[in-house]
Write the structure tokens for this entry.
Amino acid sequence: MRLQPCLALLLAALAMSAQAQGGVRRCIGANGEPVFSDRPCKLAPVPERGDDIDYALPLVAPMQTCPTSPQELRDRVAAAFDGRNAIALSGLMLWDGYGRGDATATLRELARLIEEPLITIELDQVSSAPWGDPYARRRGPRAPMDTLLIVRTARDLDRVPHEARTSFEVVDHRGCWWLRLVDW
């Protein structure tokens, strides 16, 4: 007799848990930024027949793809700076390995960085083995090089303007190119 209320309570808890885990979907917003929602992603609106459209072309919802080269990644970073869009910049980051506190700190750093006046964005090749590390194996002249994306901004430190440099490692992950913040 006492087992029946406990069983009903357990089933109710499981139902709420399953509903809460309904899933968070990653969608692409109107400006190309990632949007997280518990609802299905919306497709692009279908135009009315009276609109001025060439109906010979099929209507396809625009698809947001990942950057397929370091240069395309650099161009997207530049577009994020042009629009002062920290969310678009954070969508270009490879977030694997970040804990909650690290991710929050990185997001704050990106929001601060995007507000600074941009000087330049450059792609640079560096040796993948740090020469200052005595335990790193030395590589020959044909050793692979790592790609860095270097963002130079004008920063005002105690009312003294100076050029700040923020480096991102450019990472190829499953055919897409991503940023990873470098702590140097």
